Amino acid sequence: MRYISTRGQAPAESFCDILLGGLAPDGGLYLPETYPRITTEELARWRGLSYAGLAFEVLSRFITDIPAADLKALVDKTYTAATYCHARPGRAAADITPLTTLEPGLHLLELSNGPTLAFKDMAMQLLGNLFEYVLDKRGETINILGATSGDTGSAAEYAMRGKHGVRVFMLSPEGKMSAFQRAQMYSLQDDNIFNIAVRGMFDDAQDIVKAVSNDAAFKAQYKIGAVNSINWARVAAQIVYYFKGYFEATKSNDEQVAFSVPSGNFGNICAGHIARQMGLPIACLVLATNENDVLDEFFRSGVYRPRKTAETHVTSSPSMDISKASNFERFVFDLVGRDPAVVRELWQQVDGGGAFDLTGTSHWARLPDFHFASGRSTHTDRLATIRVVWEKYGVMIDTHTADGVKVALEHREAGVPMVVLETAQAVKFAETIREALGREPLCPADLEGLEKLPQRVQVMDADVAAVKDFVVHHC
Ligand SMILES: *Cc1c(COP(=O)(O)O)cnc(C)c1O
Fold first, then answer.
1. Rounded distance, CA 294 to CA 72, Å?
2. Distance from CA of residue 153 to its chain's centroid?
3. Is any ligand 1 atom within 6 A of the Cβ of residue 315?
4. What structural domains and CATH numbers belong to the chain?
5. I need a surface site. Which of 5, 227, 242, 384 has the fewest CB within 10 A?
6. Do 464 and 209 meet the contact criterion of CB atoms below 8 Å apart?
7. Measuring from atom 1 of ligand 1, which residue has the nearest CA?
8. This prediction's pTM
9. How far apart are CA 436 and CA 390, in angstroms?
């Protein structure tokens, strides 16, 4: 399997060659040359597999430059009950992503039972093992530099801790994350993990990462890399749980399901789109946004208009507070019939600070073939949904999952099970849970008291030179 750029002006590459990088050299995103189609026989056989077994089947269609036995070992080491141990009481951790039924035909697929209690662990844990494997093979090292507002940074650190050849330098805005998120990151004592709290906002931290990455000489000398949301391996790893969710929510492969996906950067739901292209019987992919409704606007109107930073709302589902959806270009590439010239033209407008409008085009006419629906949710909706799900079903959901449930309920169809992807656990967003329910969130027993552990973090000004200096002295 080779990977091509959505902009069509970069050479095709193998999986391992794009693993450690980000954008393609032409500014596009990598996608498989073609999507592997799953036969009826394969789908029948996959129904009985464990999560790790299924992950191997799915990923071996996309990763053809790692010997099968090695890939099998990597996947088996990643998807264990010991790592994904934070299942709800009564659910089996060995399932990795257990399904909780709220009522007949309405389910939650638990994707947040990993070390950091958010779905990003599903892909990031695999990425950690893949990075270590490929770096070892090549005798190389990497220094991952990133900025986080919460979920991504902690998922990356828990995936990379203790891995040879990898160091993580993670910038976070001082005092802006929840107490639980801070404790998760800053309590790590591993020698290869460095937390840097920047005096400023998330955007200041992000700007520093960009400035360092734009310094080509520094980047090359200090082997600076990233694990951002456009990384293809992350998308690929996420495809697996759509298959798992489908098998859990149906009795036979004649049935169809709908998935509702809380969305920010279009990474999670992009994996659902690819699962559907592979032949998984998905009736509908329901995209749920918060007040930052760039994507809902597109699916309703055909207009894609990324927002300015100043137009981006700070919400109570903060991991979806995005101004532009960095993985969206992958879907648009498919929507426009995989014509890179069209993608280049559209993103010329977007990258120049503008928007594009597909209404009236043949591309827009094809949208129904992709079976998407969308909706948005606000803080008031979030509070109401958290309350209803708690009172009616006795299940506590986090703010992002609440956005998914709210929009899912607007798109249910008779006879089609609706599976809402649970993207985080409530305890990560305790403040909103208190506001909605007037009580403390549930917390997995082994993470209770996390806030009291000693923390290791370097506080510094939002200064590029200071961050570079820190990296140089810790390499
Ligand atoms: C990252 C994240 C999302 C958004 O996922 P995308 O892949 O960016 O669409 C939703 N919920 C939670 C809890 C997250 O951490």
1. 39
2. 12
3. no
4. 94-115+233-437 (3.40.50.1100)
5. 384
6. no
7. 319
8. 0.96
9. 10
Cα–Cα dist 342/158, whole Å: 39
Q: Whole-angstrom Cα distance, residue 285 to residue 407? A: 11
Burial class (CB in 10 A: 0-12, 13-18, 19+), 164: exposed
Tokens of 52: 């790790």
- Give pLDDT, residue 474: 95
Rounded CA-CA distance 278/366 in Å is: 18
Name the β-bridge partners of 458: 196
Evaluate whether 433 touches 381 at the Cβ level (below 8 Å).
no
Contact 267 CB / ligand 1 (< 6 Å): yes
Name the residue at shortest CA distance from atom 7 of ligand 1: 267
Dihedrals phi, psi of 361, to nearest 5 degrees: -95, 165
* Burial track 146-162 (b if 16+ CB lie within 10 A, e otherwise): bbbbbbbbbbbbbbbbe
Identify residue 44 by its one-letter amino acid code. A
Question: How do 30-32 and 3-5 pair as beta strands?
Answer: antiparallel
Distance 319 CA to ligand 1 centre (A): 5
Using a 6 Å cutoff on CB, does residue 324 contact ligand 1?
no
Q: Which two tokens stand for residue 455?
A: 């923390």
Our measurement of the distance from residue 399's CA atom to the centroid of its chain's CA atoms, rounded to an integer in Å, reads: 16
Tokens of 51: 């999560």
Ranges of residues in the chain with a pLDDT under 50 are none
Ligand 1 pocket member 400 (CB < 6 A) = yes
Å from CA of 36 to ligand 1 middle: 26
